[in-house]
Amino acid sequence: MEKLKELIQIVSKNKVKNINIIGLEHNYNSLVQRLYSGIQEGTFETDEAAAKELYNSSPNSTNYKKLKYVLEKRLLNTLFFIDVNRPTFNEYQRAYYSCYKDWAAIKMLIGRGGRHTSVQLAERVFPQAKKFELTEITLDLARFLKRHYSIFEGNKKKYDYYDKLVIHYKKIFEAELLAEEYLEKIGIDYAKSRASNKTQLKKAEIYATELELLGKTIKSNKFHLLKFEILIIRYEIINDYQKVVLICNEAIKFFRSNKYLNSAFNEWNFSNKQLSHYILLKDFEGGKKIVTNCSHLVPVGKHNWYVTLELYLLLCLHTKNYQLTYDLFCQAIYNKGYSTLPPSTKEMWTIYEAFIYYLLKIEQIDPKKVKHKDGVKQYRYGKFINNVPTYSKDKRGVHISILIIQILFFLYQKKHDNIIDRIDALEKYSYRYLKNDETFRSNCFIKMLVLLPKCNFHPKQFEIKTAKYLKKLNSKQIGLTYQSNEFEIIPYEELWKFVHQMLMTNKKTNILVN
Fold first, then answer.
1. N or C end: fewer C-beta atoms under 10 angstroms in the chain?
2. What pTM did the predictor assign?
3. d(Cα 392, Cα 482) in Å, to the nearest integer?
4. Which CATH class is domain 2-171?
């Protein structure tokens, strides 16, 4: 009863008149609730749309800015009331959110003089934090309890117990911080440039060696997660993708060994890393096996399911399994989860649709063999062209893919004048953005396309004039992801073949060229 009295006294002194959270709003027509609902339901895609509807003003108006601030504060308050017992949370997620919420409560109780209640809560939270390896919380609670049992209670037995735990978890926490520091140091260089760099490689080798040695004594989920990430970067730098696949296998084996540590997500994460490297290795069977093995790790139709499906689709495109690509695309767009995807993700699937439609047109896909009953609906190419400026503005590699598919469509439609009109823009784009090693392959392929008018759209001339660029393409490996500056939905070597074949077809059918 004494602890309850202490807690009630603290809360009663400092309670607010009402709880400002989202979800308990009595007036559902209030401006705060309307802004919340509008954003949640997709009615308000921009600040301009919301400000216009709610205040008939611009987003810079004082009233609208205040409204956004109030909503933000309520959403932050609501975080503490999220029901973690819902079936959508796994055991690790429930422990994570519960422990951090209780840790915040302990800090507030200490600040308000609720020592007895905070000690009781700390002793209840400590085993959970320890079990799920929440090192920061575990160390902080051990320090707090150690201090309490020494200064306030003089309990030597409990003091010694928590003192040993502080020493133990301090070592683990320092190892985790070191791994974080190393990943950040190598990551900041790797994010700027993925081109092979001797200094970057040396740094990665030193960090990886040190962490592998430290990992023999440190049994921490977070530490090993960071260690595996650094090992992967080490071998990505030298394009040893087969080694990356083996490291991912090690990581998956490690995370499977502990059922408490969000193992399903970590296994899925490293399975996807494997899959992305099977794309680069053009190993369809290896990638297919990964997709099969991790199919049980994420619910169908959820965001992570789409991530894996997208990688599988790219694997099919890079290994010429175009028929399966069509079926995977149908699975994606006809699943009810597609409508819940963020706009940027939908944009990528729209771009994939353009390439798939192109493959249909050049008869690389047989629509009669499609497994999905609906298939791809009539493709609106004009709409895609008109919307190009809105697609993935911050992803230069994706923008290159859009420019390329435009030219391929024009060539298929025999609209050579349109290609000629685009050549100047292509050359300027190439000169402005595609000058370094990271965009080497894209630069080569765009220079090939630029040669089309100069070759008078003649297949033999095109073959001769592009030979040197084709050789350069074959000497350089494909980029990793569309987060990088170079991203190939279909390898450029294959696109070159399609271009050459279309030129041959045009010649055979006596199509007049410019």
1. N
2. 0.83
3. 10
4. mainly alpha
